[in-house]
Write a structure and sequence with these properties.
The chain is mainly β. The protein contains 8 helices and 39 strands. The longest helix is centred in the middle third of the chain and has 15 residues. The two termini are 40 Å apart. Pfam families: Germane (PF10646), Gmad1 (PF10647), LpqB_N (PF25976).
């Protein structure tokens, strides 16, 4: 996938160069630039002038020049290869990895012909466009070796991949969304990747889609394409808004009309996020793929499905609905005031509810018939979350395996199930929310004094029963302290560190890398946000309930406790 990930290094600030002892690099060779490909729409690429090695440059200058030349992806990093000897130039690949850094320095290695590029990195992107972020002040060392070739210093050993200064990375790469299905094929789950901007993006996205989901979603989502699916050639042409995807015959082995329709839907959801793509055409080794029956229809899969705009809350020890500025008692439910109810939840579909007792030692459920039952007993239960498949999730921090999933019908499906997650061992679960599509869990967990935010796939069996979470979660690094996290859309969240004795600053974070800080609110002890357009964001203190207006908090006349959107 040589057109998949292009990258480079930015010029370091002069002051930083002076501090590191790096010399400036003379430039004499011809300027080369990124050139847009023409196979998929002729979109513009970010263009950067890169220069080859200067005659007589010393070894350190060659290493620095090689780093800078990674910006130019023209002709498969041709300028970067000028800094190498012929053997390395023939085998080195620039598209396998991109390290994103804030600062770098070149230092002498263990011997005269070895140098180390020291990077303070913020993240990296792999060949499939999967981005991994790192906490502040993370470091990485890249070793290279040099020798003289016909009297000039050249790099003879270097790992595959390139390095990019963070601000340059955002000019060359852009976030794109691939889509995979939940286990029921009713929902399309986003998988955000990073690819170079330009004409090769469409091809890179299709190849990454065929390779399968990112690690944090593996075994939690499914693809309409088999593992044998490949492009016949590494190109996805786009003409007049139509992307043509030519797949090998193995892609269609035993494929039904429904399977082909699911393939096309998955491709359309992924590629029509690009401005230049309106529709897709499937080919089987140059032959158009047609359905055997015109009557074949599939139910369109949902993307970012909205929650109801009515919240659940507690007022005067009773369940209430909060809708806009109104607070309305929930009808058809038993009197729960004797339990001193807290932290209610409402199912995304139907009329089921859950809540904790005041001591947070019991989880109670109310079914569609209005019947109350004890779902779970524990010692330190957290606010429940209810998914589309009928399961209620919570965590008991007094248990060895804290995460619990409770079926709606305990008579048919049994009692609460412990969800064993190895990477959460010895952690306290502060917050747990299941996404609207039911395929992902958003978790805030604390180990020692460090709180972390994770997104992990929910692994279910063929009957939809939760069996675990994926082994390689996506870790998010908020700019604000955190003890709670909520889904704001299928690819954005709101996080905050709630507390009644301080000014709380919540932040909205997108998986594409953007963030927005909400206005401070003194004594914020709760926050609620729902998936969908124009869903109000609510915040509460011990005595007042607010809605977000612009970036300000507007006080409501009435008050409800522990408000939450469905889910």
């Amino acid at each position: 996938m040589k057109d998949k990930i292009f990258s480079s290094l930015a010029i370091i600030l002069c002051a930083m160069l002076a501090l590191s002892g790096c010399a400036s690099i003379p430039r004499t060779s011809t300027v080369q630039q990124i050139e847009a490909e023409t196979d998929d729409g002729g979109a513009e690429s970010y263009s950067y002038a890169a220069e080859g090695p200067a005659e007589g440059a010393d070894a350190r200058a060659i290493v620095e020049g090689f780093v800078e030349a990674g910006r130019s992806v023209s002709e498969d990093y041709a300028v970067a290869r000028e800094y190498m000897n012929a053997q390395l130039g023939n085998t080195w690949r620039g598209d396998t990895q991109t390290l994103i850094y804030d600062a770098f320095n070149v230092v002498n290695g263990a011997n005269a012909n070895r140098y180390t590029i020291q990077l303070e990195i913020t993240g990296e992107v792999n060949e499939q466009g999967v981005r991994t972020n790192y906490p502040d002040h993370s470091t990485r060392a890249v070793d290279v070796e040099v020798s003289k070739v016909q009297g000039e210093w050249r790099i003879t050993k270097a790992p595959d991949g390139t390095m990019l200064e963070a601000s340059t990375f955002t000019r060359i790469f852009a976030a794109q969304t691939l889509y995979f299905y939940d286990a029921s094929f009713a929902y399309l789950v986003p998988d955000v990747r990073w690819f170079t901007s330009g004409s090769g993006t469409t091809t890179s996205m299709v190849e990454a889609l065929l390779d399968g989901p990112a690690p944090y979603l593996q075994n939690a989502v499914v693809s309409a394409f088999s593992t044998a699916s490949e492009l016949v050639r590494s190109a996805v042409p786009v003409r007049d808004g139509e992307a043509t995807i030519d797949l090998n015959s193995d892609s269609f082995a035993d494929a039904t009309d429904r399977g082909i329709s699911l393939m096309k839907q998955q491709l359309e959801a992924t590629l029509t996020t690009l401005a230049r793509v309106d529709k897709v055409k499937l080919l089987r080794e140059d032959n158009e793929v047609n359905l055997s029956s015109e009557d074949t229809n599939i139910e369109p899969a949902k993307i970012n499905p909205s929650t109801q705009d009515t919240l659940i809350g507690i007022s005067d020890q009773y369940l209430v609905y909060v809708k806009g500025l109104s607070i309305i008692p929930v009808g058809g439910v038993p009197d729960i005031s004797g339990y001193n109810p807290r932290d209610p939840a409402m199912s995304p579909v139907g009329n089921r509810y859950a809540f904790l007792n005041g001591k947070r030692t019991q989880l109670w459920g109310i079914d569609d018939k209005g019947e109350l039952s004890l779902s779970l007993e524990g010692r330190e239960l957290i606010q429940p979350s209810m998914d589309l498949a009928g399961w209620t999730w919570t965590a008991d921090n007094g248990a060895t395996t804290p995460i619990r999933a409770v079926p709606a019908d305990t008579e048919m499906k049994g009692e609460a199930r412990p969800i064993d997650v190895a990477w959460l061992e010895d952690a306290q679960i502060d917050s747990l929310r299941i996404s609207r599509d039911g395929a992902r869990a958003l978790i805030v967990a604390t180990k020692g004094k460090e709180s972390s935010v994770y997104v992990a796939g929910v692994i279910r069996d063929a009957e939809g029963v939760p069996r675990g979470l994926t082994d390689s979660p996506m870790k998010i690094y908020p700019e604000v302290p955190v003890n709670t996290a909520l889904w704001d859309s299928d690819s954005s969240i709101i996080v905050a560190e709630l507390g009644n004795d301080k000014a709380v600053e919540a932040a909205q974070i997108t998986f594409e890398g953007g963030s927005e800080h909400l206005q401070l609110l003194l004594g914020m002890v709760g926050i609620a946000t729902g998936v969908g357009n124009r869903r109000e964001v609510y915040a509460e203190t011990n005595e007042k309930l607010y809605t977000r207006v612009g970036n300000s908090w507007h006080e409501l006349d009435d008050f409800a406790l522990d408000v939450a959107y469905p889910g």
